[in-house]
Every structure is written in structure tokens, then in C-alpha cells.
Amino acid sequence: MTNPLQNKRLCRLDLWLNPVFDQIISAEPGIALSVLPARGDDARTLAGLKTAHAYHVSAAKDELPRQWFVSAELIAQCPDLVCVSSGGAGYDTVDVPACTAAGIAVVNQAGGNAASVAEHTYALLLAVQRRVVESHNRLRHDSGFSREDLMGHEINGTVIGLVGLGQIGTRVARIAQGFGLRVIAHDPLLDAETIRQRGAEPVSLADLLAQSDVVSLHCPLDASTRGLFNAAAFAAMKPGAVFLSTARGGIHDEDALYDALRGGHLRGAGLDVWQQEPPPANAPLLGLPNVVATFHTAGVTHEARRNVAQSSAAQLAAMLRGERPPQLINPEVWPVAAERIAKLK
């Protein structure tokens, strides 16, 4: 265990963060918190990070300036860095292998926004199937149409296929029961019995695409999932199916999805994540009436942001006390990281 009275240097950038983070860290003995500018004074920010023991980093890849990503280049300039916490379930802004090689423990906040993302999944699904946005726009700008012109579809009795059954996917499966959906799931990291325990019937990805009336992504973006939903995957989906993603941009090919929607093979799509966030206003998908789009806000609720900030602060404080945190992304590094933490000065 480390000496609790020994000052540990924790840095974060001045991007928006729920105040509970600073409250928790400020109440923790022996931790000095520095809030550094994300933009406008790179020299000051780099100087702070160079002496940091811990770094809370935004998970928003298109909001965080690239020089403050936890990359091999930044790590090389930060010899004392031993703890990194990503401010979300994702960790696109952290090079985890580089951290592991340098003896740096990395945590995420998986589960902190799970309820919000699961709720948003159904907000998108219902908006697509019941043509909510289309109806709203026609009421504002059009006249002389009938209710039948805006006829939608029930979700009761349909099949939802979940790609990924972690904390968010499990909540989506649980909510599905209340809507009368049948749930199937594909998750190569889980065995069949675990998938059943989490409320879904295990299937192969090919069977999921063939059987699902709704396909919803809840998997991370990594080498195995990047580009997973390409033209072939969309073609393999049931005619008239709906595609949803609250996962990460880059898992689905936006051009291929546009073609599948424009050609009529898919009925609609609900998208919270994009290759570029926010997408440009002239993005082809935004021009389709059967697409409901949001700006990666599935996990952006007051409750979720507080949960994530609280989780991040608690895990960083625990690590700096020499305690193993619950959400280690690279658990194999902990013995080395714990030894480094014990020697902090």
C-alpha cells in the first residue's frame, strides 16, 4: 500500500465534467488535482501531464484534441504516469497496448451509462418504427395529409438481435421483455449459457442477421468489429429490418448502410454514433426520412454523466491508494502498476 499522505498528482482537462469528480478527488487525502486547458495553452498542459501520476481523459474522440490522447507519443513524455481513466465505457482515446507496455493501468466506466444507452436504444427504435420524426416534421411544414400517410409498425412480437451482450446489451434484453420482443444475441466473448442467463437466445452472427427484425449494436470498436457491418452484412439482414447503433462509429459502413436504406432493403435506421462526430450536415444518411439521428447522446444524461464521473474519480482514488480497481481494461498490468504506485514520490 502507498502512503496516503504522500501527494499524488492527478490531471484532467477543462472539458465539461460533472462536478462530483472534483468533489470526490478534493476530499481524498494526498491527491493534488490539476485542471489543465484542453485548448489554448499546450505548453502548460503538456508540462502538467509530464509530471502526472494519474490522468482522467475524455472518451470523446472528436472533442478531445488529438495531442492529449493517451498515445505512445504522449506516454513517452510522461514517465510518472501510472493510472489512466477513460471518462466513459469506451476508450477510443487511449492506446491500451502502449499503456500496458509502459506499466500503466487503464480503467473505463462500463455500466455507468448503461441505463441511459439502453433507454436511448428504444427511443431510436420507436422513433423509426412509429415514424415520430417524420410525423413531427410534416405537422410543422405540411398539410392535407392523413394519419394513414404516417402509418408505422408495432415492435411487439418482433425479433431483436443484439450484437454484444455486455452491461448495455443485457439491459436492452431485459427491457425487450416488457415490449413483447423475442431476443437473440451474438457475443463471441460469452458462452451460450451466459447469454441465456442475460436474457437472450445465443445464435451465430449469420443467424442473427437472417432472423432479426431489428439489429442493434452493443459491441466495442476494435480490430474484430471495425467495418463488421458492411454491404454484405446489410444484404444478409431480413428485408424490411431496422438497424440501430448506440455502439461506436466505424463498426458500420455508413455508405453501405445508405445504399441498403435507399434501395429499400432495410426499413429504417436509428443512429447515435458516426465515423465523424457530429456528422456533416450534408451527410447522405441525414437526408433520408427513414433515418433517426442523434449526436452520440445515448449516454449523455444528467444521471449517466454523474455516474461516470463518480466512477472515474473513485477508481483513480483507489488506484492511487494502491487498490485494484473494478474496471481494469488491462488487468495483466496490475502487478507492475501496483509496484510503480507503491514507489510514487
The geometry reads as: elongated
* Strand arrangement across the biggest beta sheet: 8-7-6-9-10-11-12
Number of E-type strands: 12
The fraction of residues assigned to DSSP E strands is 15-25%
| Multimerization state | single chain
Distance between the termini: 13 Å
Report low-confidence residues grouped into runs of 5 or more.
Answer: 1-5
Specify the structural class. Answer: alpha/beta
Compute the CA-based radius of gyration.
22 Å
* Helicity level: 25-40%
Quick take:
The chain is α/β, with parallel strands linked by helices. 35% of the residues lie in helices and 15% in strands. Helix 1 (20-26) runs parallel beside helix 12 (302-320).
Describe the structure in your own words.
The protein is α/β, with parallel strands linked by helices and 345 residues long. It has helices at 20-26, 42-50, 72-76, 96-101, 114-129, 132-141, 167-179, 192-197, 205-211, 231-236, 254-262, 302-320, 334-342; strands at 8-13, 31-36, 54-57, 83-86, 105-107, 159-163, 182-186, 201-202, 214-217, 241-245, 266-271, 291-293. The strands form two sheets. It has a seven-stranded parallel beta sheet, sandwiched between helices. Strands 2-1-3-4-5 form a five-stranded parallel beta sheet, sandwiched between helices. α1 (20-26) links the parallel β1 (8-13) and β2. α5 packs across α7 (167-179). Residues 123-298 form the D-isomer specific 2-hydroxyacid dehydrogenase NAD-binding domain.
